[in-house]
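Dear colleague,

Following up on Tuesday's group meeting, I ran the structure prediction for the seven-component complex that the binding team flagged. I've pasted the input sequences exactly as they went in, so you can double-check that nothing got truncated or mislabelled along the way. The structure tokens for the whole assembly follow below. Feel free to forward this to whoever is handling the docking comparison.

Inputs:
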Amino acid sequence: MIKPLSLLNQSINSNVLVELKSGRGYRGILDGFDPHMNVVLKNAEELLNGETQKKMELAIVRGDNVIYISP
Amino acid sequence: MIKPLSLLNQSINSNVLVELKSGRGYRGILDGFDPHMNVVLKNAEELLNGETQKKMELAIVRGDNVIYISP
Amino acid sequence: MIKPLSLLNQSINSNVLVELKSGRGYRGILDGFDPHMNVVLKNAEELLNGETQKKMELAIVRGDNVIYISP
Amino acid sequence: MIKPLSLLNQSINSNVLVELKSGRGYRGILDGFDPHMNVVLKNAEELLNGETQKKMELAIVRGDNVIYISP
Amino acid sequence: MIKPLSLLNQSINSNVLVELKSGRGYRGILDGFDPHMNVVLKNAEELLNGETQKKMELAIVRGDNVIYISP
Amino acid sequence: MIKPLSLLNQSINSNVLVELKSGRGYRGILDGFDPHMNVVLKNAEELLNGETQKKMELAIVRGDNVIYISP
Amino acid sequence: MIKPLSLLNQSINSNVLVELKSGRGYRGILDGFDPHMNVVLKNAEELLNGETQKKMELAIVRGDNVIYISP
């Protein structure tokens, strides 16, 4: 058994996919998070329907938009 | 009588279906949860209209999207 | 006078109807609840427009979707 | 001056109309409430466009759906 | 300078307009409120597009629907 | 560096524009606020697509509707 | 590893892009923030589909609208 935030903690410095309610997703290296599931992504790509829309060196994605985070 | 979180606790390592507000569902082995009903699923499948959309080794599904979880 | 959670408590082991914001409803035997109105239903049926969509041995329905619960 | 919850308290055992965000309303005898404005209605009728849709002996209506309660 | 709740307090027994997110408004004499901006209106009128839809002797309007309250 | 609420505090008695999620905006003299970003506006104008819809001597705008406040 | 609010703190006096749920974005110099991710932007531009809609010397953008903030 592993708690959601512990799994996020184990995923630091790994690639994660953050899928949002709006249909957009963000893929990047997890650089940090807080208990609200706000996450910091490094080398982030914004994805829409599987295609890269935009690249960002760093992005703070707000947790309340998240459907799931897949490490 | 059983409290919702106690039932989640009993369902650890079992297969569960997590149905979301968006119409999407996730099926997988429950690997963890927290009091917000954020859940960790192992060997997760994303379902839409009963069909598998995608497979993920691990996913943290955020609790505020959940309609129901069925163990 | 009876408080909402006390009425839920009296309804344990009885049949209840849980009507959700999405138009879906769930009918089953109330097996548990918590202060957020998350409920555990046994022998649950999902209803849409009065017709059974699906049966589940157990389901945890998240309270924030609920319009009303009728014991 | 009267606080909202004090008015609810004075309305116990009286007929109230509970109007919801969805356009539906519930009329019944107020049998209880809590600080979230969750209410227990006895002999409740569900109303849509002024017409009775359904009758229920008891219903717990969740407060976060409420637009107004009129005693 | 005046805090929002202090202005509500000064407006007790005065006529106020409560405009809601749904496009509906309520006009009446402010009879009470609480820190969530739930308000009690006396001799309340429901307004839609400037026209009176309905009159109510008393109504508790839930604060989370409010866009603005104008004393 | 300045915290959001400190900037609101510095803007007391100045003209501000309060833009809401609904597309409506309110312009007026900031007369007060609280930590939820509920604001009191004096000599407020309601704006829609840049045009004045309505004038109000005083209005309490609820913070949860706000997109931004520009002093 | 860096927590979301620490990254915001490091971004004070730098240019940031604040993308909102509504599809609008704001670009400006980060002048402050609070734990809700409410942010103060200096020399802010409102963007829609990549085009500048409006310029503001100062704007407090409410955190609950935010999808992501990119430093």
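The first strand of chain C starts at residue 15 and ends at 20.

Cheers,
M.
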